[in-house]
Inverse folding.
């Protein structure tokens, strides 16, 4: 292997690592706030990418129907809750958010000439369709069982994952797709040829990580999420409801997932079930961080990306095996160095 | 830890001094009717009735395991209960924590429940979360008042809450609850596990809060200190309220003296004084 190939592989590894880092952060966040091991994180990657593909092809994305359906269900559940507790004033808001928003979005998608829109607008529309599914998913699936043990939440996560993959096949078909690159630019960097999309992925990841850092460090809502992660009871006593924290967390997780999908769609072919493997690699990175440390998870993600890139060169057939085997020494090392804390519930 | 003479009225609702010192009947802030809590088949609290008047300190004393914490948790909506909680003129049949906080009820729990890996200042800020959410953005001002009340917290505002001493933690827990500008502050064993000097300081602050018009429901095992500072008192034993009366009267009651204040005549003298 000469230096040029090594550099190329490193570039590949860091690009993928940046995406795994985003997903790892989302997984750590979701687990810390809601104790859910969020297996369907990867599905948001595929949904984001393939929704963009459909928009670029000029068709109304099928994911819109899922959003509408989930919205109507959530509206029914929330309306019943509002009526039962005698808060009729909340009905208007419940309907506007859960039904009004998807309806307006549907009108937009049917009215606009999707295929000829500028790329940033297409991306925005794709995110507007996919991201709200995060909080809806929390409302409909996780909120009713928020107090359940971690194992049950995990099993439910697996079910949600399987369901979403199935729906993905229905929505997008079995064919894989790619989107055109955000930028065709190429740069010479010493002996290395860097393509524009790589820069996009890395820059967008860094911007998103910095934005999340500021959100958690500077805003009261970000601090409220951290507080919920640290001490759920204490947070409730401040009026930070677990339901609010859960929905906000799932909104962020869905945004991170969908945006990751949009970013990598020009680099790799995305199939309806591609998300799972990508999400699992983010999960390996999150495990490196013990599902608790954001910086270690991000570093772990870059390590996973690099390991994957180099093993695909030396032992292409085994690259997944090598990446997932990383978990074993990491778990051994963590079990020797960290104190085991029994779950409270 | 001094500088308490500064006049402040941002925390809580100010009430004129005369209205409180007179033993008349102030407006009711909290009324609890026939509150029952059961853990499975075990009844932990049965038919508790209790009233807190505006600007009053009402204390609930009783032995360990009598159901004091259970009662506060049920009033706050942390536990399922039967009965009625009338807070600030509005009845709640199923109290829910977030709603109670939004309506001006705050609990400082026995375990403090601080956000250990956050700074003192962030802990205080989150105390104002519910107010912030409903559009009342006066937390900077309230924080100044809290720092006035607890100068120690201001000295340590950048420190992580988990590194504070026991007394400082209790101060932070109380300060954090005050950030919500409560109409009713419920304190669960605020003196538990603290050195005598700190306990005295905490009770001095409780008195100071009352002077500012905060109504307080105080649950204590330290019956002597609680009865000294309170206006009215209840005794809770094995899930039932067994005695009640003005705090001074209960402090002189032989049954209370025997069970909760110790037998030494010395104490009686001090209480009577």
């Amino acid at each position: 292997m000469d230096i040029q190939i090594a550099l190329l592989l490193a570039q590949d590894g860091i690009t993928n690592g940046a995406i795994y880092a985003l997903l790892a952060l989302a997984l750590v966040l979701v687990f810390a706030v809601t104790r859910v091991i969020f297996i369907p994180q990867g599905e948001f990657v595929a949904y984001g990418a393939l929704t963009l593909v459909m928009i670029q092809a000029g068709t109304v994305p099928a994911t819109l129907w899922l959003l509408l359906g989930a919205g109507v269900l959530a509206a029914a559940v929330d309306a019943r809750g509002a009526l039962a507790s005698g808060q009729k004033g909340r009905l208007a808001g419940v309907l506007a958010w859960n039904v009004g928003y998807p309806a307006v979005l549907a009108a937009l998608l049917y009215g606009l000439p999707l295929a000829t829109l500028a790329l940033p607008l297409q991306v925005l529309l794709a995110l507007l369709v996919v991201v709200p599914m995060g909080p809806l998913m929390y409302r409909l699936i996780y909120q009713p069982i928020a107090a359940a043990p971690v194992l049950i939440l995990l099993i439910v996560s697996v079910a949600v994952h399987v369901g979403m993959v199935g729906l993905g096949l229905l929505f997008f078909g079995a064919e894989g797709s790619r989107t055109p690159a955000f930028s065709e630019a190429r740069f010479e960097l010493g002996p290395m040829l860097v393509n524009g999309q790589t820069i996009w992925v890395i820059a967008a990841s860094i911007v998103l990580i910095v934005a999340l850092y500021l959100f958690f460090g500077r805003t009261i809502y970000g601090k409220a999420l951290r507080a919920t992660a640290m001490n759920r009871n204490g947070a409730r006593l401040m009026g930070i409801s677990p339901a609010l924290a859960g929905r906000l967390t799932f909104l962020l997780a869905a945004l991170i997932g969908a945006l990751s999908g949009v970013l990598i769609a020009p680099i790799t072919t995305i199939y309806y079930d591609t998300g799972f493997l990508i999400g699992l690699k983010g999960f390996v990175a999150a495990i490196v961080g013990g599902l608790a440390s954001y910086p270690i998870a991000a570093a772990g993600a870059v390590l996973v990306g690099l390991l994957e890139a180099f093993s695909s060169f030396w032992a292409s057939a085994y690259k997944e095996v090598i990446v997932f085997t990383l978990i074993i020494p990491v778990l051994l090392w963590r079990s020797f160095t960290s104190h085991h804390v029994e779950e409270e519930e | 830890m001094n500088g308490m003479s500064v006049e402040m009225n941002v925390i809580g609702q100010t009430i004129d001094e005369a209205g409180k010192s007179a033993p008349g009947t102030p407006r009711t802030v909290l009324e609890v009717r026939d509150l029952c809590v059961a853990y499975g088949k075990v009844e932990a609290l049965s038919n508790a009735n209790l009233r807190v008047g505006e600007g009053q300190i009402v204390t609930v004393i009783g032995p360990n395991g009598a159901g004091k914490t259970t009662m506060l948790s049920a009033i706050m909506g942390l536990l399922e209960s039967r009965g009625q909680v009338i807070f600030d003129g509005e009845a709640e049949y199923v109290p829910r924590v977030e709603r109670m906080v939004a309506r001006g009820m705050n609990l400082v729990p026995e375990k403090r429940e601080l956000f250990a890996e956050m700074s003192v200042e962030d802990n205080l800020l989150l105390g104002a979360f519910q107010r912030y959410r409903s559009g009342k953005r006066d937390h900077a001002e309230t924080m100044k008042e809290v720092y006035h009340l607890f100068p120690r917290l201001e000295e340590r505002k950048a420190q992580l809450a988990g590194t504070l001493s026991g007394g400082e933690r209790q101060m932070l827990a109380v300060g954090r609850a005050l950030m919500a500008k409560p109409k009713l502050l419920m304190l669960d064993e605020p003196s538990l596990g603290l050195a005598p000097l700190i306990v005295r300081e905490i009770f001095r602050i409780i008195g100071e809060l009352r002077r500012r018009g905060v109504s307080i429901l105080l649950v204590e095992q330290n019956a002597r200190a609680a009865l000294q500072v309170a206006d009215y008192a209840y005794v809770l034993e094995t899930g039932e309220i067994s005695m009640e009366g003005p705090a001074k009267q209960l402090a002189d009651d032989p049954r209370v003296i025997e069970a909760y204040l110790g037998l030494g005549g010395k104490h009686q003298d001090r209480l009577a004084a």
Remarks:
- Chain A has a mean pLDDT of 90.
- Chain A touches chain B at residues 85, 220, 223-224, 226-227, 230-231, 233-241 (CB under 8 Å).
- Residues 285 and 334 of chain A are 13 Å apart (CA to CA).
